[in-house]
Every structure is written in structure tokens, then in C-alpha cells.
Amino acid sequence: MSDKKAVALQYDQQSAPKVVASGEGGLAYDIEQAAIEAGILVHEDRQLAEVLSKLEVGQEVPPALYVVVAELIAYAYMLEGKFPEQWANIHNKIDFKA
Fold first, then answer.
1. One pLDDT digit (tens) per residue for the chain, 98 residues
2. Distance from the first to the final alpha carbon of the chain
3. 3-state class of 9 per DSSP?
4. In this structure, is residue 24 part of a structural domain?
5. pTM given for the model
6. Enclosing H/E stretch for 80
7. Containing domain of residue 16, as a range?
8. For FRET with 22, which of 45, 50, 65, 75 sits at 20 to 30 Å CA-CA?
9. Rg (CA), the chain
10. Contact 55, 94 (CB under 8 A)
11. Domain assignment of residue 34, yes or no
12. Is residue 52 within 8 Å of residue 61, measured between CB atoms?
């Protein structure tokens, strides 16, 4: 059986992302396929999956992982064309003459 691990996170923008599914081997494959079919970004990172797989389903991502998870969430949003409101027309706010 494969040693592949998969962890699915959910982020509601109100609290830290939390684990909603976790598994290895065949279950990991099923989690990944369900995400792909649902149009959810799948990021493959063996080391991150290893660390996240130690969390229980329903548990929030610990503060030590906030930066890496936040970067992945931000990247996923940008791929979908979503940007924070304060980014709107940011190019107009930059003084290129300075």
C-alpha cells in the first residue's frame, strides 16, 4: 500500500484553517480525487502532509504552520482571480517617480 498522505483543510475566514479530512494510502487517493472533482486546489507537499496528518479531523492548524498555510490559501485565491479589496488598483497607488 502507498505511503501517500492527504489532508484537506477548510478555511472560513473567521478562524484558523482546520482539518476536515485526513488519510493515507487509498483513503489519501480518495481525498485527493474528491478535491479534484470538486474543483478544489490540490497542493502536493509530502513534508507538509506529514505534519498536518498528525492533527485530528476538526483540529485547527497550529500557529507554527500559519505562514505556510496562509501562503497556500493566498495562492489559491489568486489563481481564482480573487484579491483583497485593499489590493484594488494598487498599481495606481505606487509612486514610481520616487
1. 468 999 999 999 899 999 999 999 999 999 999 999 999 989 999 999 999 999 999 999 999 999 999 999 888 888 887 777 666 665 555 555 65
2. 59
3. strand
4. yes
5. 0.78
6. none
7. 5-93
8. 75
9. 17
10. no
11. yes
12. yes
